[in-house]
Amino acid sequence: MRRTLPAAIAILLLTAGCGGSDEPQGADDPTTSSAPTTEPTTTATPTPAPTTTPTPTQPTKASTLIDYGDDEITVARAGDVAKLTGAPEDFKAFIAADLQRQQATKDKVCTEKAEIHVGKVDTRGWAAGGIFIPQCGGNAALWAKVAGGWREVWGGQTLPDCAVLEKYDFPAGVAGGECGTADGKTRHYP
């Protein structure tokens, strides 16, 4: 016995290039229902579900910026670099080494151990944060990947220097929207 598809399904199959027979696949299979369905069947392979779900701190394919938010990530011990989710491994190693160097510096007035705070990282080679010593204060810091290695390129308690931002081509998303000029003025960056 010959079975026919409802007209709408037949048109969909023909326009999708699936013609060749007006009988549905499995017509000879007694377990196949002859009742019309509301959705056509397709032979396309389904897209596999992603294996991981990005977190808010992870960059998307279109973005390279990781923003750790207003609280930033506090690195008070070398193991704290694990909190820098999504940051490049060489940046984490740099922060751990810089923390060790900062904490090895002895100061009779500031006896607390230094901390490094990381607010933003652009995985292409820029980061912003600061150095802080509890009960003594600290300063903002900008880091850049220079000649294959990370280093602090600016530190201070004012707006970042425009000349430094331009020299290292800092993205505005890391450096912020304003910078200070040599004559003490503020201007929009970039």
Outline:
The protein is of the alpha+beta class. Helices cover 18% and strands 24% of the residues.
Structure, described:
The strands form 2 sheets. Strands 1, 2, 3, 4, 5 and 6 form a 6-stranded antiparallel β-sheet that branches. A two-stranded antiparallel sheet has the order 7-8. A hairpin with a 5-residue loop joins β7 (178-180) and β8 (186-188). The longest helix is centred in the middle third of the chain and has 16 residues, at 89-104. The relative contact order is 0.10. It is built from 4 helices and 8 strands. The model is unreliable at 1-44 and 47-61 (pLDDT under 50). By secondary structure, the chain is of the alpha+beta class.
Please give a handful of descriptors for the protein shown.
6-stranded antiparallel β-sheet, 8 strands, single chain, 4 helices, alpha+beta, 190 residues
* Mean pLDDT over all positions: 78
Number of helices: 4
> Quick one: biggest sheet?
6 strands, antiparallel
Instruction: Assign a percent range to the helix content.
Output: 10-25%
Terminal Cα span: 74 Å
Helix and strand sequence: HEEHEEEEHHEE
Q: What global shape is seen?
A: globular
- SS-derived structural category: alpha+beta
